Amino acid sequence: MSDIDPTVHVPSVEPPLESTALQMGGLSELLGYSLKRAQLKVFEDFLRCMAPLQLTPAQFSVLLLLDNNPGRNQTEIAHTLGILRPNFVAMLDVLEGRDLLTRMRSPSDRRSHVLMLTEKGRAILARAKKLVATKHEARLIELLGPTHHAALLAMLATIATEF
């Protein structure tokens, strides 16, 4: 016996037309939503630029920080970049496996590891920096214009440091 009451009318729901854009409500007015959407687009472009080098934005950031701060410990690097320890260790495993960096016990604290770029890591980073500057960032500057690009960087830095 069926549990459906034949006397109750259930209205049929027509699926929306596929060509009709979804109404965003207030989403497009929320800064967090807009930042996330922009981040996704920027990361997509970054990954396309870095495809020949197989670097993610986070990996590029690690290599760049190590280039400017050789011999710093992995906790400092992870904290500065806001990467959780388990994720960071896995990323270091990948970068070390590609011979882009090396981990060594800290001479001052045996519980800690210091990180150094390898020669291969420096070479890959040099190529990555060139790709980022000439393709990725160049596209963003072209899209926004130099003044707006600089202003957006300043605004994002304010949010990151003061919010």
Note the main attributes of this structure.
mainly alpha; 163 residues; two-stranded antiparallel ribbon
Structure, described:
The protein starts with 30 loop residues before the first helix and ends with a helix. The protein is mostly helical. A two-stranded antiparallel sheet has the order 1-2. A hairpin with a 7-residue loop joins β1 and β2. The longest helix is centred in the C-terminal third of the chain and has 26 residues. Helix content is 59%, strand content 6%.
Q: Order of SSEs, N→C?
A: HHHHEEHH
Unreliably modeled segments:
none
How can the largest sheet be summarized?
2 strands, antiparallel
Helix amount: 55-70%
Compile the SSE list and pairings.
Layout: H1 31-50, H2 57-68, H3 74-81, H4 85-97, E1 101-105, E2 113-117, H5 119-144, H6 146-162
Antiparallel strand pairs: 1-2
Helix pairs in contact: 1-5, 2-5, 5-6
Task: Give the gist of this structure.
This protein has 163 residues and is mainly α. The protein is built from six helices and two strands; from the N terminus they run ααααββαα.
